[in-house]
Amino acid sequence: MLALALVAVLVALAFAPAVQTWVAQAMLARQPALQGSLGSLSARFGRLDVSELQLKTDGAVLTMPSLEAELPLTTALWDRKLPLRRVVAKGWTLDLRQISPPNGAAEPAGSTPVAEGGPAAPAPVEAVSAQDVARIFRGTLSRLALPCDVSLDGADLEGDVVVAAPVGSAPARVHVIIKGGGMAAGRDGDFAVDASTEVLDSELSVVTIAGHGHLMVAMKSPRTFSRVEVKGDVSAEGGLFPNGLTFFADAAAVVGAGGESYSVDLSRGSQHLATILARWPENTSQLAGTWKIDLQDSDVALFTLDRPLPRFTAAGEGQFDTDVAFTRAHVLGRLSAAMSKLGVLVPSLERIGAVTVDTSFDAAWSGRSIRVDRLSASLSGTRPAAVVQSIQPFEVDVLTGDLKPVDPAGDWMAIAVRGFPLAWLSNPADRFSLSGGDATGEFIVRTDKGGFAVRSKSPFTAAGVSVQRANKTFGPKLDLSVSLLADYGSQEWHFQAAPLMVSSGGSRLGTLDAKAPQSGGPDQPIAIAGTWNADLPALASKALVPDLSWISGRSASGDFTATVGTSLELDGKLAVVGHDEHHSLTASAHVEVDGDGRISFLAPVKIAFGPSVSNLSAEGTLIRDAAVTRLYVKLTGKEVALEHLRLIAATLAAAGGVPLAATAGPETPAKIRDRIPFWGNWAGRVAVAFDRVNAGDQVFSKIGGAFQIEHGSVRLEEGQGELAGQRFTNVKGSLSFDDAAEFPYDLKTTASLEKVDAATLFPAPVSGGDPAIEGQYSIACTLLGNGINLDDLVGRAREEFRLTSTAGIVRVLKTDVDEAMPPEVDTPVTDTLGRLGTGVGRFFGTDDSIGSAKRTVSPAAEAVIRFINDISEIGYDQITLTAIRGSDGTIRLADIAMTAGDERLTGSGQIACVKDLSLRARPLSVDLQFWGRNRIAKRLSKVGLLSTQKDDLGYTMLNQPIHLGGTLEHIDKSQWHKLLVKAAAQNPDVPKKGP
């Protein structure tokens, strides 16, 4: 009885919930791969109740508030059978956020779980290792056996599955409902599965995703399966899918005679997007099958909600096979994809437009190596662009990236560029574009010393190429040809264009030969070196680069070296040879560009035009930002020519985008109105300091000043200089731009020059004697102009010089009439001539003996001779003169006025412009009005040369103008001479003195 009582007690204890809970907890504690806790467990005949169950394994956490199951406990315990009649679990949560990545990789730093609740961005897809997949297929249906007999008549499960989302987004919570049953040996179980969640798309709109389907399970025996199939649909609505999106999926695994077969089919409507068929023959270790896809970007948008996709369609098919452990896989086939709007991936790809990529491949993966037996790919836009074709099989180490062809010494890859659109190389963000004929060429690639070597099989060519930047065209319709050589290794690479040839219409324009090696690793600087040359007449005849039309010459060449790293250093040389071999320009430059884009430069320049040589230096800094480009430069030199400075100014203007054709001179037509100033968005300061500046026959010294450049104006400040030892003062000027004005450009510059010797313009005659004018002058200089563009401004510019002198001598009216004197007469003039001595004798071209010769002349001649003596050297009180140089170079002389004691001159004239002649040697034409009073007027009245016109000061005007011609060096007085001779020859019938 005691024994029976003990048994009864033990049985009672066994059915006590506390004991059952303690036993279950002990069993959980003995599972090393499973961590769990249990609130309570109650097992009674035919029923099992569990509460507050939590299980953790590999980062997955299952929390189940309650579980109810109906099953015969004695059958489960003694017969090892689980005939589940009913299973109910609701409110459970399966948290997958902390699942360890494959191969035990560490969790990313900072990936702190985000609080639950609310819509979430889609969870990232974790990579699955080959070992993980192998574990799945090792348990295929034919090999899968349950540890005990199982059947399930009914299930009612409802809960949430929580998956991770990108950092900063709430996790995705998927609500799952599973209902069904009927799973048993010889019967097909059917379970209805419903799942739903809400996520955010790339535009932060809510997308509702729902799935509905059936899981069908057929059991061959109480412990084995003969078929598992899933059929269902997944739909999305809202956000990116306003009209809804629905997919249908059908996946099945079936055990049949001779092995197992697998199928996966994903469709959308009547279109099959992806199909995989595979078979695992019995008693083999190989899975083999076929694959086929036919889909577009909208078909996969549901799986990439957090990022936009380019437009694409992709279609392909092929075969695959693999071993049971997935340590080896082989795949082959073809794939064709048409893509557009690639800018959503990388903005610079938007310029490519629509492209098509066709590939064909045969590759095998084993361990850490991929062997490619065949690979070809073609890229095309509106027409074929490029084809890549493997020449021999090769292997790639997936960990190191090392590539090994079967024949290391043989060619590896052939690349044929059949019609590569140059527009694909444009960069709209930098306002840079290429257009013209498509590029063609062929290349061979082979492996070399752990890297690659590329060689041109045929030159890379492109015809009709035009380069544009900032809406300017540089070199339209160019023909390019280049042979490329390149070597790339893990620690060094080398690139060479050998050479790049540029031509147009069959004429060679220039060549470039450049090399760019890098050694010591990817972080080391790149050294670039090269040489170039250009045919300047060919460039000019083709008018290919309008902004360089001012350059003339026979050829240009140079070399350069550059170091490119975190900063840039460039050294280069330039040599330009003119049509005349004595005309040349040589320069060297050192340029540094720091990491912020700040450019510093130093460039010594030598310009030689025959005997005229300029040596100067440009040193400065260039700073660019989004709004303005600032230039700070200083030009210095000991001796420069004014004509050479224009070349330097043009170069600086070109760097700022100035249309240099406008500086070519007044012959350039000016038609188009500028809407912005020619200096664009440039600002800064250009300072000059020259010891000597040669301007024709004038020599300026100690020239200096600074040009302050702003958005709407250029101002000259601190201007200074000297001419013939005299210093310029008050030098200042401005060039403004106002788009609303009739002439947007307005130029005004002024300067003063004190005590200028007249000998600088009127030198003494080469044959000897005194200069035509002596004295010192003050000069007020003004440069004025306006225009609708730079051409027009240059064409309208005029220089005005106001000359003033208060003391000096004028000899421009000095002449000789002796050889035209009438026959001698006996008059008192003889004594007069004797008294005049050498002074008058010089006018007649005689010597000092004239006084003793007692020569006699007529009264008219006497009056003329006395007049000539009076005006041969006029000591003036004041002279004023305005000289205006026009755009054609002609100098107009206006407001000529000289005042002396009894003499006065007024008039006007001009000095013509003749190329290559100095100012002194250019044609002169002046018309003067002579005015006299007192004794001068009386003498002119005697010979009938006075008019009746008299001014307020009592001067009477000569009855006809005085015309002077010739040049400033040799003044032609022939008209004045003839006038006086004619006046002296009056009264020819005066009786002669007797014999």
What key phrases describe this protein's structure?
disordered C terminus, two-stranded parallel ribbon, 995 residues, 54 strands, elongated, mainly beta, disordered N terminus, 52-stranded mixed beta sheet
Describe the structure.
Among the domains are: 341-490, no CATH class; 628-762, no CATH class; 808-984, no CATH class. The longest helix has 14 residues, at 642-655. The chain is built from 14 helices and 54 strands. The N and C termini lie far apart (205 Å). The strands form two sheets. It has a 52-stranded mixed sheet that branches. Strands 5-7 form a two-stranded parallel sheet. With 995 residues, it is mainly β. A hairpin with a 5-residue loop joins strand 10 (188-200) and strand 11.
